[in-house]
Amino acid sequence: MDKTVVIPLIFEWQNVVMRRQGVTRELEEPLYRSIGSRPIKIVTGFRRSGKSFLVQQVARRYVDEGNILPENLLYLNLEDFRLMTVTTPQRLNDIFELFLSTSAKPGKKLLIFDEIQNVANWDRFIRTLYEKESDEIEILLTGSNSELLSSELGSNLAGRFIEFRLFPFSLREFLIFKGMPITTTAEYHRNRRELQALFNEFLKFGGLPEIFTIIDGDAKLSYLSGILSKVILDDVVRRFRVDNVTLLEKILTYLLASAGSITTFASLTRQAKALGFRTKSETVIAYCGYFVKALALFELNRFSWKQSRVFSDTRKYFSIDTGLMTLFRSAEENQATRLEHVVCLELLRRHGTVHFGTNDNGRELDFLVPQGGRLHDKYQVTRSLTADDEKRELGAFALADPYLRGGKNMLLSLDEDEGIKMHQGVAIECGNLLRWLLGLR
Predict the structure, then answer these.
(1) How far apart are alpha carbons 277 and 280 in whole angstroms?
(2) How far is CA 29 from the centre of its chain?
(3) Which of 27, 137, 309, 380 is the least buried, fewest Cβ under 10 Å from its Cβ?
(4) What are phi and psi of 413, to 5 degrees?
């Protein structure tokens, strides 16, 4: 290892972190409060969703509040080209030893390893640090792959970490970035026209923070296309050693173009064969799983009232970001689907687990959120509740309630009228989708 490269890098990143300023993410406070507890902290999230920025903000705050000396911060961005040779636990340990000998002072130290999945067998190094140095160090990791929390951690770090999942910007965070925070109902009404325009932009181009600084629409799409290529080539093809890259791309294109629709592996396999691909269901299942592991897609399972349906392959895939959908379908073409997406992502932020529901007749309930036992909150999403739509949209709640007594029933739309509607003996709260996203309810 070239010490003349690594030693200046240690001090360079200390300076970068100490100058970090920007929008405070909603995940910052719970992440910051966790520091001081013994477990390793792991921030996972889709590429370019702001993980590096978040941990840098937390590190700066930790130093500013006097918890550690600036010299006791080690931040390594493992996608920095100057660290390309750091591919083994031993190389990580070499850098740690250089940090101790050239920068660190006596006292508590904060170690941040950004995009740790780029180092093979990294968990062995982290566990060694954890076991030997836990009284003197805080360990904070980030990664762009959900396998950080499954097979790779299953044996070596099980029970030793806390996960924090970072999503792209929420609407609330997006509006703060744009200089128009909406925190009260009065502010909502005063800024409705500007808010609607920004919301349309948010639906079209999504919440990846770097895209907010791009003015031209075509340039934004070019940026999103680059992100998707990075996910396919680095996070999936190389990581999982995919042979049929063309089929992989076709599957992702289909899942993003039809995001939010009910999908089965059997139907995906049939479509692949119709396009001339000689493939098996097992391959299609694996490829879909890779995109979920790369955090590009969320897989929602069908909630079943019958135990026999637990293993059904019926599911829905939701994009991590509505901007990625714009690469394949215009925002105007599928606005209703995008509204479902922003609600789904918000429910995942707030609750972590989300299902969808259907019955044997194909009646569909957009989202079910478990609240414990047989208690589930139920959500329907629509652009507007018209007289023609009322039976279909509200009838879905009657579908669920005989099986799931209790829990709230909520219909979210862009309508301004709010209140309780009764349908087939079921009370349904009708709310404005924007105010719900902004937490004004």
Answers:
(1) 9
(2) 17
(3) 309
(4) -145, 175
37: buried, middle or exposed (CB in 10 Å: 19+, 13-18, 0-12)? Answer: exposed
Q: What are the CA-CA distances from residue 399 to residues 15, 201, 374 (Å)?
A: 58, 35, 15
* Cα separation of the two ends of the chain: 56
Q: What is the pLDDT along the chain (441 residues), one digit of tens a residue?
A: 688 889 999 999 999 999 998 899 999 999 999 998 889 999 999 989 999 999 999 999 999 999 999 999 999 999 899 999 999 999 999 999 999 999 999 999 999 999 888 888 888 899 889 888 767 899 999 988 766 655 455 456 767 888 899 999 999 999 999 999 999 999 999 999 999 999 999 999 999 999 999 999 999 999 999 999 988 877 888 888 998 999 999 999 999 999 999 899 999 999 999 989 989 999 999 999 999 988 999 999 888 655 445 456 688 999 999 999 999 988 888 899 999 999 999 999 999 899 988 766 667 889 999 887 778 899 999 999 887 778 788 888 876 655 566 788 999 999 998 899 988 888 899 999 999 999 997
Residue-wise DSSP of 152-218: HHHTTTTTSEEEEEEPSPPHHHHHHHTT----SHHHHHHTHHHHHHHHHHHHHH-S-GGGGG---HH
- CA angle 387/415/430 to nearest 5° reads 80
List the chain domain ranges.
3-166, 173-437
Contact 428, 409 (CB under 8 A): yes
Which pair of structure tokens corresponds to residue 368? 């079910």
